[in-house]
């Protein structure tokens, strides 16, 4: 076995860039869902008070 084969190459930003895209997409989606839930419950509570 060659010693060059046993070395692991460090991961650069180009290698892990997709992780950050998925993470950012999940954050945006969760904020959107939280806003929708807030509006849904606010509207429901307003209708119940009438």
From TrEMBL:
Superkingdom assignment: Eukaryota
Spans traversing the lipid bilayer: 16-40
Record's keyword terms, sorted: Membrane, Transmembrane, Transmembrane helix
Protein name per its UniProtKB record: Uncharacterized protein
